[in-house]
Design brief:
The chain is an alpha/beta fold and 276 residues long. Helices cover 30% and strands 32% of the residues. Helix 6 runs parallel beside helix 7 and helix 8 runs antiparallel to helix 9.
Length: 276
Protein backbone atom coordinates (compact mmCIF):
# COMPACT_ATOMS: atom_id res chain seq x y z
CA UNK A 1 0.00 0.00 0.00
CA UNK A 2 1.40 3.38 -1.02
CA UNK A 3 0.81 5.58 1.99
CA UNK A 4 0.56 9.33 2.03
CA UNK A 5 0.14 10.50 5.60
CA UNK A 6 -1.65 13.73 6.38
CA UNK A 7 -0.06 15.90 9.06
CA UNK A 8 -1.19 19.15 10.66
CA UNK A 9 1.60 21.55 9.79
CA UNK A 10 4.69 21.20 7.63
CA UNK A 11 7.88 19.15 7.65
CA UNK A 12 9.75 19.74 10.86
CA UNK A 13 6.54 19.91 12.93
CA UNK A 14 5.80 17.52 15.78
CA UNK A 15 3.13 15.86 13.62
CA UNK A 16 5.83 15.20 11.02
CA UNK A 17 8.02 13.64 13.70
CA UNK A 18 5.22 11.29 14.74
CA UNK A 19 4.55 10.30 11.12
CA UNK A 20 8.23 9.39 10.72
CA UNK A 21 8.34 7.49 14.01
CA UNK A 22 5.17 5.53 13.30
CA UNK A 23 5.41 4.88 9.54
CA UNK A 24 9.16 5.16 8.95
CA UNK A 25 11.61 8.00 8.30
CA UNK A 26 10.96 7.93 4.52
CA UNK A 27 7.18 8.40 4.87
CA UNK A 28 5.52 10.64 2.29
CA UNK A 29 3.52 13.37 4.04
CA UNK A 30 0.68 15.64 3.00
CA UNK A 31 1.01 19.03 4.72
CA UNK A 32 -2.31 20.42 6.03
CA UNK A 33 -2.50 23.79 7.76
CA UNK A 34 -5.53 22.99 9.95
CA UNK A 35 -7.17 19.96 11.51
CA UNK A 36 -10.21 20.57 9.30
CA UNK A 37 -8.02 20.38 6.19
CA UNK A 38 -6.40 17.24 7.62
CA UNK A 39 -9.77 15.51 7.94
CA UNK A 40 -10.77 16.65 4.46
CA UNK A 41 -7.58 15.18 3.00
CA UNK A 42 -8.58 11.80 4.43
CA UNK A 43 -12.14 11.98 3.12
CA UNK A 44 -11.05 12.95 -0.40
CA UNK A 45 -8.39 10.23 -0.49
CA UNK A 46 -5.58 12.74 -0.81
CA UNK A 47 -4.18 11.16 2.38
CA UNK A 48 -4.39 7.44 3.10
CA UNK A 49 -3.72 7.96 6.82
CA UNK A 50 -3.39 10.91 9.17
CA UNK A 51 -1.63 11.95 12.35
CA UNK A 52 -3.74 14.07 14.72
CA UNK A 53 -2.79 15.44 18.15
CA UNK A 54 -5.50 14.65 20.69
CA UNK A 55 -4.15 15.69 24.11
CA UNK A 56 -1.18 17.22 25.85
CA UNK A 57 0.07 16.45 29.34
CA UNK A 58 0.07 20.18 30.21
CA UNK A 59 -2.69 21.76 28.13
CA UNK A 60 -5.14 18.84 28.22
CA UNK A 61 -7.47 17.53 25.52
CA UNK A 62 -7.92 19.11 22.10
CA UNK A 63 -11.71 18.96 22.31
CA UNK A 64 -12.61 19.80 18.67
CA UNK A 65 -10.56 16.82 17.45
CA UNK A 66 -12.83 14.38 19.26
CA UNK A 67 -15.74 15.88 17.35
CA UNK A 68 -13.85 15.60 14.04
CA UNK A 69 -13.19 11.89 14.62
CA UNK A 70 -16.78 11.18 15.61
CA UNK A 71 -18.63 13.30 13.05
CA UNK A 72 -16.50 12.13 10.11
CA UNK A 73 -16.53 8.45 11.14
CA UNK A 74 -12.76 8.18 11.24
CA UNK A 75 -11.10 5.06 12.59
CA UNK A 76 -8.38 5.27 15.24
CA UNK A 77 -5.72 2.80 14.10
CA UNK A 78 -3.06 3.58 16.66
CA UNK A 79 -1.58 6.11 19.05
CA UNK A 80 1.81 7.66 19.69
CA UNK A 81 3.13 9.57 22.72
CA UNK A 82 5.76 12.14 21.76
CA UNK A 83 7.93 13.96 24.33
CA UNK A 84 7.81 17.66 23.47
CA UNK A 85 11.06 19.65 23.55
CA UNK A 86 10.36 23.27 22.65
CA UNK A 87 13.13 25.56 21.43
CA UNK A 88 13.18 29.30 20.78
CA UNK A 89 14.75 29.93 17.36
CA UNK A 90 15.43 32.82 15.00
CA UNK A 91 17.72 33.88 12.16
CA UNK A 92 21.45 33.51 12.73
CA UNK A 93 23.32 36.28 14.53
CA UNK A 94 20.54 37.34 16.90
CA UNK A 95 20.09 37.13 20.65
CA UNK A 96 16.95 36.93 22.77
CA UNK A 97 17.21 40.68 23.44
CA UNK A 98 16.82 41.28 19.68
CA UNK A 99 13.54 39.34 19.46
CA UNK A 100 10.39 41.49 19.53
CA UNK A 101 7.73 38.91 18.61
CA UNK A 102 7.49 35.14 18.87
CA UNK A 103 4.99 33.21 16.76
CA UNK A 104 3.83 29.63 17.32
CA UNK A 105 0.86 27.32 17.67
CA UNK A 106 -1.39 28.31 20.62
CA UNK A 107 -0.58 25.03 22.42
CA UNK A 108 3.16 25.72 22.20
CA UNK A 109 2.71 29.26 23.50
CA UNK A 110 0.67 27.96 26.43
CA UNK A 111 3.27 25.33 27.26
CA UNK A 112 6.08 27.93 27.36
CA UNK A 113 4.39 30.85 29.12
CA UNK A 114 6.64 30.71 32.19
CA UNK A 115 9.79 31.10 30.09
CA UNK A 116 8.49 34.33 28.55
CA UNK A 117 7.65 35.88 31.91
CA UNK A 118 11.39 36.55 32.15
CA UNK A 119 11.30 38.27 28.72
CA UNK A 120 8.39 40.73 28.94
CA UNK A 121 9.65 42.67 25.91
CA UNK A 122 8.58 39.78 23.66
CA UNK A 123 5.05 39.76 22.25
CA UNK A 124 3.55 36.28 21.82
CA UNK A 125 1.45 35.75 18.69
CA UNK A 126 -0.68 32.69 17.85
CA UNK A 127 -0.04 30.99 14.52
CA UNK A 128 -1.17 27.85 12.70
CA UNK A 129 1.93 25.70 13.07
CA UNK A 130 5.28 25.64 14.88
CA UNK A 131 7.44 24.59 11.94
CA UNK A 132 5.65 26.78 9.38
CA UNK A 133 6.67 29.86 11.37
CA UNK A 134 10.28 28.65 11.23
CA UNK A 135 10.02 28.23 7.47
CA UNK A 136 8.58 31.74 6.98
CA UNK A 137 11.29 33.33 9.11
CA UNK A 138 13.95 31.83 6.85
CA UNK A 139 12.17 32.40 3.54
CA UNK A 140 11.33 36.03 4.34
CA UNK A 141 14.50 36.71 6.39
CA UNK A 142 12.43 38.07 9.27
CA UNK A 143 14.71 39.70 11.82
CA UNK A 144 13.40 40.35 15.32
CA UNK A 145 10.93 37.45 14.94
CA UNK A 146 11.26 34.15 16.77
CA UNK A 147 9.54 30.80 16.59
CA UNK A 148 8.80 28.07 19.13
CA UNK A 149 9.35 24.69 17.54
CA UNK A 150 11.29 21.47 17.83
CA UNK A 151 15.02 21.19 17.11
CA UNK A 152 14.28 19.46 13.79
CA UNK A 153 12.56 22.59 12.48
CA UNK A 154 15.70 24.63 13.21
CA UNK A 155 17.80 22.08 11.32
CA UNK A 156 15.49 21.93 8.29
CA UNK A 157 15.03 25.70 7.95
CA UNK A 158 18.50 26.81 9.00
CA UNK A 159 17.62 28.78 12.14
CA UNK A 160 19.70 29.42 15.23
CA UNK A 161 18.42 28.01 18.53
CA UNK A 162 18.44 30.76 21.18
CA UNK A 163 17.10 28.62 24.05
CA UNK A 164 16.31 24.94 24.49
CA UNK A 165 13.78 23.12 26.66
CA UNK A 166 11.70 26.24 27.24
CA UNK A 167 8.49 24.33 28.04
CA UNK A 168 7.29 24.96 31.60
CA UNK A 169 7.00 21.28 32.47
CA UNK A 170 10.10 19.47 31.27
CA UNK A 171 8.29 16.12 30.99
CA UNK A 172 5.75 17.65 28.58
CA UNK A 173 4.28 15.03 26.22
CA UNK A 174 1.60 14.98 23.52
CA UNK A 175 -0.56 12.03 22.53
CA UNK A 176 -1.38 11.59 18.85
CA UNK A 177 -3.93 9.40 17.09
CA UNK A 178 -3.21 7.58 13.84
CA UNK A 179 -6.38 7.85 11.76
CA UNK A 180 -7.88 6.45 8.56
CA UNK A 181 -11.26 6.16 6.85
CA UNK A 182 -10.93 2.37 6.71
CA UNK A 183 -13.42 0.49 8.89
CA UNK A 184 -10.73 -1.70 10.44
CA UNK A 185 -7.56 -0.56 12.16
CA UNK A 186 -5.46 -3.33 10.66
CA UNK A 187 -4.08 -4.30 14.08
CA UNK A 188 -4.08 -8.03 14.78
CA UNK A 189 -6.61 -9.04 17.44
CA UNK A 190 -3.92 -10.69 19.57
CA UNK A 191 -2.03 -7.37 19.63
CA UNK A 192 -5.11 -5.24 20.34
CA UNK A 193 -5.26 -4.16 23.97
CA UNK A 194 -6.77 -0.67 23.86
CA UNK A 195 -9.95 0.88 22.48
CA UNK A 196 -11.57 4.30 22.17
CA UNK A 197 -15.34 4.48 22.65
CA UNK A 198 -18.12 7.03 22.43
CA UNK A 199 -21.04 6.56 24.84
CA UNK A 200 -24.37 8.32 25.22
CA UNK A 201 -26.23 7.45 28.40
CA UNK A 202 -29.59 8.06 30.00
CA UNK A 203 -29.65 11.36 31.87
CA UNK A 204 -30.34 9.81 35.24
CA UNK A 205 -28.55 9.22 38.51
CA UNK A 206 -25.91 6.51 38.47
CA UNK A 207 -25.82 5.87 34.71
CA UNK A 208 -22.11 6.64 34.36
CA UNK A 209 -21.30 4.80 37.59
CA UNK A 210 -23.02 1.70 36.20
CA UNK A 211 -20.85 1.85 33.09
CA UNK A 212 -17.73 2.11 35.23
CA UNK A 213 -18.83 -0.96 37.20
CA UNK A 214 -19.26 -2.91 33.96
CA UNK A 215 -15.75 -1.98 32.86
CA UNK A 216 -14.34 -3.02 36.23
CA UNK A 217 -16.26 -6.32 36.30
CA UNK A 218 -14.98 -7.15 32.81
CA UNK A 219 -11.36 -6.38 33.84
CA UNK A 220 -11.06 -3.25 31.72
CA UNK A 221 -9.08 -0.23 32.88
CA UNK A 222 -10.49 3.22 32.12
CA UNK A 223 -7.50 5.38 31.16
CA UNK A 224 -9.32 8.45 29.85
CA UNK A 225 -12.83 9.90 29.89
CA UNK A 226 -13.83 13.14 28.17
CA UNK A 227 -17.31 14.65 28.01
CA UNK A 228 -18.47 16.59 24.97
CA UNK A 229 -21.79 18.42 24.50
CA UNK A 230 -24.24 17.00 21.99
CA UNK A 231 -24.65 20.00 19.69
CA UNK A 232 -28.31 19.60 18.76
CA UNK A 233 -29.55 18.64 22.28
CA UNK A 234 -28.92 21.35 24.91
CA UNK A 235 -27.27 20.08 28.11
CA UNK A 236 -26.87 16.56 26.73
CA UNK A 237 -23.37 15.09 26.79
CA UNK A 238 -21.53 12.25 25.13
CA UNK A 239 -18.61 10.53 26.81
CA UNK A 240 -15.43 9.59 24.97
CA UNK A 241 -13.53 6.90 26.83
CA UNK A 242 -10.28 4.99 26.39
CA UNK A 243 -10.02 1.53 27.91
CA UNK A 244 -7.17 -0.96 28.12
CA UNK A 245 -7.43 -4.72 28.63
CA UNK A 246 -5.27 -7.82 28.74
CA UNK A 247 -7.71 -10.24 27.09
CA UNK A 248 -9.70 -9.31 23.98
CA UNK A 249 -12.49 -11.61 25.19
CA UNK A 250 -12.95 -9.42 28.28
CA UNK A 251 -13.27 -6.39 26.03
CA UNK A 252 -15.82 -8.15 23.79
CA UNK A 253 -17.89 -9.05 26.85
CA UNK A 254 -17.88 -5.44 28.06
CA UNK A 255 -18.92 -4.16 24.64
CA UNK A 256 -21.83 -6.61 24.44
CA UNK A 257 -23.14 -5.37 27.80
CA UNK A 258 -22.59 -1.68 27.02
CA UNK A 259 -24.52 -2.03 23.75
CA UNK A 260 -27.56 -2.97 25.82
CA UNK A 261 -27.07 -0.34 28.51
CA UNK A 262 -26.12 2.74 26.47
CA UNK A 263 -28.41 4.88 24.34
CA UNK A 264 -25.55 4.87 21.83
CA UNK A 265 -22.23 3.04 21.73
CA UNK A 266 -19.69 3.69 18.99
CA UNK A 267 -16.30 2.04 18.78
CA UNK A 268 -13.93 4.70 17.43
CA UNK A 269 -10.97 2.35 17.22
CA UNK A 270 -9.28 -0.77 18.55
CA UNK A 271 -5.48 -0.64 18.58
CA UNK A 272 -2.27 -1.38 20.43
CA UNK A 273 -1.53 0.52 23.63
CA UNK A 274 1.68 2.46 23.00
CA UNK A 275 2.12 3.57 26.62
CA UNK A 276 2.77 0.26 28.38
Amino acid sequence: MNRKVGIQGVKGSYHHGVAQAYFGSDVVVNECMSFGALVQSLETGESTDAVMAIENSIAGSIIPNYAYIDEHDLTICGEYYLPIHHCLMALEGQEIADIKEVYSHPMALLQCKEFFRAHPHIKLVEDADTADVSRRIQEQQLKGIGAIAGETAAEIYGLQILAREIQTIKTNSTRFFILSTRAESGVLQEETNKASLKLMLDHKRGSLATVLNVLSDCKLNLTKVQSLPVIDIPWKYAFFADVTFEAYADYEKAISILKIMALELKVLGEYKNQKQ
